[in-house]
Specification:
199 residues; globular; alpha/beta; Rossmann fold; two-stranded parallel ribbon; two-stranded parallel sheet
């Protein structure tokens, strides 16, 4: 069994799924000028090249039969929290006001009523549905997320030459360039005020 985290774009080219939750969230928050304040929501993001290579390598291995492999970052230090992600967007040159989740969600819903071009418009039901005791939405429920143990995957990949790239600020900037090139003309995204590409 393979249990991947969020799968994002290629670590070398930046080619990515423009319809995915991560890409839509980044673009939508730039459109809104705000981001949700979510405490320690981990994304468990891995690149598509790592996920595909790891699964293709492990699938035919006799020792992998019956095993469970988390295709996630190889240590907590290699993952990033939700709030880190939007801090990097601000470093890229976009001003984002951090709001508590309920306020942010209300502002998103209001904008979507007037402008269905917001990138998160198709996912509003997902963001609004209360899944835990009818009180918390999925993002609120996953605050203070636990880290997935991926020691089985790391051990099984030893000697394969397959490693999990760290999705860091620089890589997010590569994806942002792809997002803005694709979404910008459709939704009228502004250009960033300034771009810092410090590692």
């Amino acid at each position: 069994m393979f249990r991947p985290g969020f799968i994002t774009g290629n670590s070398h080219t930046g080619a990515t799924n423009l319809q995915g939750f991560l890409s839509r969230s980044l673009v939508a928050c730039i459109q809104l000028g705000t981001s949700p304040d979510l405490v320690n929501v981990k994304n468990q993001v891995v690149t598509v090249d790592y996920a595909s290579r790891a699964i293709l390598y492990l699938s035919p291995q006799p020792d992998a039969i019956g095993g469970t492999f988390h295709i996630t970052p190889w240590s907590p230090a290699r993952d990033f929290a939700w709030n880190d992600l939007f801090a990097w967007v601000q470093d890229y040159g976009y001003s984002l006001q951090r709001l508590d989740y309920s306020t942010w969600k209300a502002k998103l819903s209001l904008q979507c009523r007037h402008d269905p071009n917001n990138a998160l418009y198709p996912l509003l039901p997902f963001l609004n549905e209360k899944i835990y005791a009818q009180t918390l939405t999925i993002l609120e429920h996953y605050q203070n997320t636990a880290d997935f143990a991926c020691s089985a995957a790391i051990a099984a990949l030893q000697g394969s030459g397959i490693h999990c790239p760290v999705v860091n600020r620089q890589m997010i900037y590569t994806y942002l360039y792809t997002y803005l090139d694709a979404f910008g003309p459709q939704v009228g995204l502004p250009q960033p005020l300034s771009v810092s590409l410090l590692a």
